[in-house]
Amino acid sequence: MMTWRKAGMAGCAALALALSADGAAAQRSLFDTPLEAPAGSARPASAPAAAAPAAPTAEAPAETRKPRARAKPRGPVPARSLTIHNASPNTLTGLEVTGDGKSARLAKPLKPKGRTTLRLPALKTCTVTIAATFETGAPEPSELDICKEKTIRFTDS
């Protein structure tokens, strides 16, 4: 006797084959191995024996499936931009931020009491070198941790 049964795979129907009259040994789908017959029922000689274990099916419980985890950054993340404040009485004529062999520069001078944002390249390290040039003097190199500080404030002292 043959019966039809629905499988839960995206609305598709799978064929279930009853191997005995009482339905003791049946397949869930064509890709599954036959279920074991209970003790005392005879298996027909025409049914092929399963030579290899069945491959995992899509009917696996949802608990065994794990969602993909997004990679979280390890440790501090360097800033992608810095806010520059010129609180000095002198014009900031040049500013260069260098780190990991990459650099960013101010496009135009920054007047006293001025504020601007400097976009940085993608850096892997937190420490950068800053070289600021004012109209009154030579560059003043210094180092800054851009993972902790996102603002640079220049004063007259």
Walk me through what this model shows.
The strands form three sheets. The chain has a four-stranded antiparallel sheet, with no helix packed on it. The protein is 0% helix and 32% strand. The chain has strands spanning 3-6, 13-16, 81-86, 92-99, 102-105, 114-119, 127-134, 140-145, 151-154. The chain is an all-beta fold. It is built from no helices and nine strands. The radius of gyration is 36 Å and the shape is rod-shaped. A hairpin with a 5-residue loop joins strand 7 and strand 8 (140-145).
Would you summarize the structure shown here?
The strands form three sheets. The protein has a four-stranded antiparallel sheet with strand order 5-4-7-8, with no helix packed on it. A three-stranded mixed sheet has the order 6-3-9, with no helix packed on it. The protein has a two-stranded antiparallel sheet with strand order 1-2. A hairpin with a 2-residue loop joins β4 and β5 (102-105). The chain has strands spanning 3-6, 13-16, 81-86, 92-99, 102-105, 114-119, 127-134, 140-145, 151-154.
